[in-house]
Design the sequence.
């Protein structure tokens, strides 16, 4: 039986993208950034789980992401105060230990103004932030290296709640989107990687980082149209994905 031309084209596109995907993986692991490597590694099992049970996994991810953002001031600052945890993290990488100290300092400042926060982009000028604690390391260089803590620090509880709702909504919409199964799993892996990097990487207001996130979201939505027609189970009136 002849294979439809459209299916042939989709198959060719799939094979053509594999070298590009392999090149991107090699590039990530060839660079020095540990956060990107960890985020990529963890995103793969998340994508696999989404492929198997997209709806349920997306709902769990939404709840966990919102919980992580809302409880960040109560959890992350405590890590530096656990001697065994701090020793392991600091031995793994000096900058990782410094990050725990930054989170501890940020948690104390959040506790001073938990509702209103210190103001947009105030992380750069928080009192005491430029005091040196170790050679070449200060309490708060430019930002807390965690998006949730930065939101709490600068925008207080209202800002953190709004962003938590936004992230939760992204996961829920992913679980309901009428996309092919494999494409939705890949998109979910990308969403997890982006939030993982935001949780331990750059300042949330950096223009290039916001631009990267916006471009990634735009590309995901646009390429969903080219990924192929959705399976019958995802059409209106059908049983939603598990």
Sequence:
């Amino acid at each position: 039986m002849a294979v439809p031309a459209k299916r042939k084209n989709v198959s060719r596109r799939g094979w053509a993208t594999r070298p590009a995907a392999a090149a991107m993986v090699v590039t990530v692991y060839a660079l020095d950034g540990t956060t990107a490597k960890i985020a990529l590694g963890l995103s793969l099992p998340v994508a696999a789980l989404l492929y198997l049970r997209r709806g349920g996994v997306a709902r769990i991810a939404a709840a966990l992401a919102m919980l992580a953002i809302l409880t960040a001031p109560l959890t992350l600052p405590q890590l530096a105060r656990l001697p065994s945890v701090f020793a392991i993290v600091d031995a793994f990488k000096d900058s990782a230990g410094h990050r725990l100290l930054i989170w501890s300092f940020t948690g104390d400042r959040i506790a001073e103004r938990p509702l209103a926060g210190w103001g947009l982009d105030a992380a750069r000028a928080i009192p005491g932030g430029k005091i040196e604690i170790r050679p070449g390391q200060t309490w708060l260089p430019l930002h807390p290296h965690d998006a949730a803590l930065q939101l709490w620090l600068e925008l207080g509880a209202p800002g953190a709640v709004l962003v938590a709702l936004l992230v939760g909504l992204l996961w829920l919409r992913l679980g309901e989107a009428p996309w092919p199964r494999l494409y939705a799993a890949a998109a979910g892996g990308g969403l997890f990687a982006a939030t993982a990097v935001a949780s331990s990487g750059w300042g949330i207001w950096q223009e290039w980082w916001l631009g990267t996130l916006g471009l990634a979201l735009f590309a995901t939505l646009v390429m969903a149209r080219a990924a192929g027609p959705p399976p019958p189970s995802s059409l209106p009136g059908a049983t939603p994905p598990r």
